[in-house]
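INPUT
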Amino acid sequence: MDMNQYLSMFIDESNDHLQSLNESMMGLEANPEDLSIVQVIFRSAHTLKGMAATMGFEDLASLTHQMENVLDLVRNNKLRMQDFIFDTLFKSIDALESMVEDITGGGAGKADVTAIVSSLQAIVRGEVPSAGNASAEVTAAASGNASAAQVFLDEFQYSVLEQSLQEGHQVLYVDVAIRKDCQLKAVRAYMVFDLLERSGEVVKSFPSVQDIEQEKFDYGFSLYYITQKDASEIQKMILNLSEIDAVTAVALDQESLRQMGQDSVAATAEAPAPAPVQEAAPVAANASPAAPLHPKEENGKAAPARAGGAPSPSRTIRVDIERLDVLMNLFSELLIDRVRLEQLASEVQNGDLTETVEHMGRVSGDLQNIVMKLRMVPVDTVFNRFPRMIRDLAKSLDKKVDLIVTGADTELDRTVIDEIGDPLVHLLRNAVDHGIESIADRIAAGKPETGTVQLRAFHSGNHVFIEIEEDGKGIYPKNVLASAVKKGVITQEQAGTMTDDEAYQLLFAPGFSTAEVISDVSGRGVGLDVVKSKISSLGGNVTIYSTPGKGTNFSVQLPLTLSIIAAMLVRLGSEKYAIPLSSIVETGIVKQSQIRTIHGNRMLEFRGSHIPLVSLSKIFSIPDYDESTEEETEIVVVRKGERLVALAVQDFIGQNEIVIKNLGKYLPDVQGISGATILGDGQVALIIDPNAFIK
Amino acid sequence: MAEDIKVIVFKLGTEEYGIEVEKVQTIERMMPITRVPKTYSFIKGVINLRGVVIPVIDLRGRFGIEEAEHTDQTRIIIVNVNEMEVGFIVDSANDVIDLNRDIIDVPPDVVGGIKAKYLDGVAKIGDDRLLIMLNLSEVLNKSEIVQLESLEG
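OUTPUT
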């Protein structure tokens, strides 16, 4: 069967399940006793396992299988959730995520998850270190345990061994430890088995032969072995193989065999939990008597309650963004035809025709709204990864942080959504790392020890605002200024005249970081300047409000969409250009006499300062216009940050909503041009990139 | 036994050129072109092809042949090569023929003044028709244009 056609569906659904796993785990962490959440997690993991197995992603399937084993014990009240289990499960989800990412990138979804798997197995065996223990310790404990673990025999195996003894064969209990630096331990193990099987028979091994073949074991394994040779000989044989750390081979007699056999039988009967779980089948049936009865009822109740309470599955379909782009193109064509039809109708002066064209105009207006809405995506698709990130971040910084997300259903154009993730990650890291104080500092400042980070999204006019506000230590303008002077960003004199707001803006200056010590969290040599420039490139803006001692608010203002903008259409000779309204400060008319030349550059006095006058006709070599021949010139003053430039144009045509198109792959970058748009008459007009004229 | 390929035939001056039909999206009549400043002189600008903005190249200019007035016969051939959509302005385009790959010869070093690297080969049809098969990726290769310009300039 060709799986490729299902692959994108698999990836989409896996991502959904991973997201749900992450969310539910966060929920469970906040509320560890709520077994209904465990059920949800279990179901997600189970579905994921099934899908992965069907698609042939074995590593994915086996890791989810191990997770299921743990979750199964939890939901059956055999295991209480605690920090170590949470961490391990989160790590597993991370590993699954990277596997799915690998598959998305065309890989086979392979990953080395031995450490996580052994942690999960250790949890299933009941070896959970007390809170705070490093996971390394666990792995060590797990591996130590694996080699020393009892090899449980079933009755059949026991009788085989017993019979062999009676027939005069040697029965050995062999424990092999492979060197920790061994690269291919499964191969090494295979060589041991191969060697042993040449002069005898391996009756039973722990872990099972399958697990060993799949490297699902730590650096040791044990086995029962029937042979004619004696223990020391076998020991020597195995030790002759390279990369074997230690071998113990013990010859068993009737008595010791019975002892071990009984032990193991007893062990399996008494405690099902520590037994290596081979099947996904829930061990629920033989619930230990200690477990109270009510959780089962709770499970029963929880499932339907959730089904009713949870938002009903939204009736949506997935659409390739490229198809939407095609739809958009077709639509803009329709708009152009509409304009032509309107022109024709007004010439023909036929009542019926005019009416029909008007009706078509209304319909296409509605259609335009729908097409635009199709491209809108809730910011939730970006926000949903933040709770997990904040959790991990707070943990690694040893802080307590609550993330409160509001307005996650606010919609933004898909193109903005794709770009906004990274800047937000940076601002959130910044808020937790630099904003929120350590627990001790918070207590000393009389604040609750848990800091709060608010992540808000909301519409306002033609913009969407995303705010990140924390109740941390705030930013002291004085410190910012001092630091900026020290780093040479500004001079001492400049610092003296700056307002608080201007001081805050310095945080966005290249090469500026307020942190005394650059931590590995927000350091990385990337500053807020990168955030600022990214947001500017989206046509947005960032502002900071801070109250020293109380907290800081980063407010990001974004345009609703990137594909349609308001623009000023201007004419230069026979050519038309569009200038984005967002960068226009004002328009005006200047006389030749107002233009001065300073150092060979033409300058213009504008609101008390001199700004450069850029001749578009010269830069673009416009064939049939030159403003220097005119007595008066229309100008458009554009802004990039604090700097202003006046662009000389011939005429203003007017303001228009334009659909942005790129110039095609053959012309990726044309200086001074950021794209093109199609005007009502079907002509292409180029969009001027004002930033290109401001150095 | 080489396969047959379908080829769009177009003219630049007196010479006939061929482009494999799979690489051709459509052939359009001349339409308004918006000039794009600060590009090579042979890039005439961009057109609106049913809602998509596509750059247009004057093939005469690209090959260093003197550019001609546009006539009723002038066509824009929209090709799609290496995911780039580009229009070629040609003098005329009015033929589609089947060509056996066997009859396409390796091009001579210089054909009609065009650098041989733009050519995939030359096909002789009948007794007196020579069809020059274009290597579109090379025609659209911009890094090489810079070299060419400097050689000529």
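end of record. The longest strand of chain B covers residues 4-12.
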